[in-house]
């Protein structure tokens, strides 16, 4: 099978020799023919030697690499790729786990499938394309997923309306297989509703699973504030950990409603929990110093490098409020999920906030994403989740 060809400028193949999965527009010398958005292309060096194969798209990232050898991208190709991803999840004990049926089975570049995310919630796989190429291949990918995962998956829901707004095909969310409305999944023995129809990402933030489990160990007897609670993940872990009271805050009334439903699923009629639909900064401004365990897990403050400065200002301001109000001996779980904010950027923002508060602050844990969100060693940009657990005197 021959695909249209992309030729690189001299020297621009160096990153591909290091297996980086992206080719930026500035690296391209010329393109043979006019590939459509999402079409497969072969990539050649300026010496006219084949070096990679990938999906073409218009934009800063022009080619997303799928393979560094010449091969045909067909059903067998997708089966092979998904088998490798599934084998990793089996090897870390996430498949057929007795109390957990929620995990990520494909994590984009971390699984050499740039532009593709697949999350598993019980018997449903939620698939999300972040590139036109993955959108065009969705039916083959769904078929390959069924072959690889067999009976363990009954439904495949495609959810790419928000990630592919510019795709000419205008992707519509919907089931590619099955159609079950049973949306209750389980994470380490706790149940929750997954809103894959209208929720953010694929419906739940699976990437915080291990960090929620850690929080549970610190919750006993504490007064907990879960800020930007989304659907309440940290809140019900805190309750199981023996928290004295838990307040969940999110600006979205819909998120607060889902948080209440999730708490009710696990702790029916428990009076320790209250949820508020309110702006985070307003809530932090007016609250007293009643909390000794605070979680700050805001949405990405910076989606693009241009927004970095404002994002870091946001993290400083947010953490400064928490340092100002948290009780002595309190514990702060603070996160950034912005890919453009590096670990050092984030730590500096939190350090500045701590210094502004004048309090003695110590790092207990440095957190990241879990093993089912692997980072390719050739693509360090994939490490997007940064977190610190801090003890505040």
Structure description:
- By secondary structure, this protein is α/β, with parallel strands linked by helices.
- 28% of the residues lie in helices and 27% in strands.
- The strands form four sheets. Strands 16-15-14-17-18-20-19 form a seven-stranded mixed beta sheet, with helices on both faces. A six-stranded mixed beta sheet has the order 2-6-5-4-1-3.
- β17, α9 (308-325) and β18 (330-336) form a beta-alpha-beta unit.
- The longest helix is centred in the C-terminal third of the chain and has 18 residues, at 308-325.
Show the helix and strand layout.
Blueprint: E1 4-8, H1 14-17, E2 22-24, E3 28-31, E4 40-44, E5 50-56, E6 61-67, H2 75-91, E7 102-107, E8 116-121, E9 124-129, H3 132-136, H4 138-149, E10 155-158, E11 174-177, E12 184-187, E13 190-193, H5 209-218, E14 223-227, H6 233-240, E15 245-250, H7 253-266, E16 273-277, H8 280-286, E17 293-296, H9 308-325, E18 330-336, H10 343-357, E19 361-367, E20 386-392
Parallel strand pairs: 1-4, 9-10, 14-15, 14-17, 15-16, 17-18
Antiparallel strand pairs: 1-3, 2-6, 4-5, 5-6, 7-8, 8-9, 10-11, 12-13, 18-20, 19-20
List the main descriptive attributes of the protein structure presented here.
alpha/beta; Archaeosine Trna-guanine Transglycosylase, Chain: A, domain 4; Rossmann fold; single chain; seven-stranded mixed β-sheet; globular; Transcription Regulator spoIIAA; six-stranded mixed β-sheet; 393 residues; 20 strands
């Amino acid at each position: 099978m021959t695909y249209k060809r992309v030729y690189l400028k001299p020297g621009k193949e160096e990153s591909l020799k290091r297996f980086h999965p992206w080719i930026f527009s500035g690296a391209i010398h010329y393109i043979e023919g006019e590939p459509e958005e999402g079409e497969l292309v072969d990539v050649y060096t300026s010496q006219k030697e084949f070096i990679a194969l990938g999906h073409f798209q218009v934009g800063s990232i022009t080619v997303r690499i799928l393979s560094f050898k010449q091969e045909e991208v067909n059903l067998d190709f997708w089966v092979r790729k998904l088998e490798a991803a599934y084998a990793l999840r089996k090897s870390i004990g996430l498949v057929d786990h007795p109390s957990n049926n929620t995990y990520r089975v494909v994590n984009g570049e971390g699984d050499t499938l740039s532009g593709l995310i697949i999350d598993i919630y019980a018997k449903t796989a939620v698939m999300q394309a972040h590139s036109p190429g993955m959108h065009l291949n969705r039916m083959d990918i769904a078929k390959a997923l069924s072959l690889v995962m067999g009976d363990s998956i009954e439904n495949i829901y495609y959810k790419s309306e928000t990630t592919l707004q510019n795709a000419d095909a205008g992707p519509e969310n919907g089931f590619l297989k099955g159609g079950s409305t049973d949306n209750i999944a389980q994470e380490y023995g706790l149940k929750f509703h997954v809103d894959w129809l209208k929720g953010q990402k694929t419906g739940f933030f699976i990437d915080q699973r291990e960090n929620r489990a850690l929080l549970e160990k610190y919750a006993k007897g504490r007064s907990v504030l879960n800020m930007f609670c989304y659907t309440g993940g940290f809140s019900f872990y805190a309750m199981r950990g023996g928290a004295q009271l838990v307040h969940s805050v999110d600006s979205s009334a819909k998120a607060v409603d889902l948080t209440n439903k999730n708490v009710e699923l696990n702790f029916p009629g428990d009076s320790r929990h209250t949820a508020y639909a309110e702006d985070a900064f307003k809530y932090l401004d007016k609250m007293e110093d009643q909390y000794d365990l605070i979680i700050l897990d805001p949405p990405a403050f910076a989606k693009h490098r241009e927004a970095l400065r404002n994002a870091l200002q946001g993290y400083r301001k947010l953490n400064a409020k928490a340092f100002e109000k948290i009780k002595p001996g309190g514990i702060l779980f603070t996160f950034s999920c912005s890919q453009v904010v590096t670990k050092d950027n984030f730590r500096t923002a939190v350090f500045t906030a701590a210094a502004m508060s004048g309090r003695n602050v110590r790092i207990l844990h440095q957190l990241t994403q879990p093993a089912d969100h692997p980072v390719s060693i050739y693509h360090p940009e994939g490490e997007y989740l940064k977190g610190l657990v801090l003890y505040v005197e």
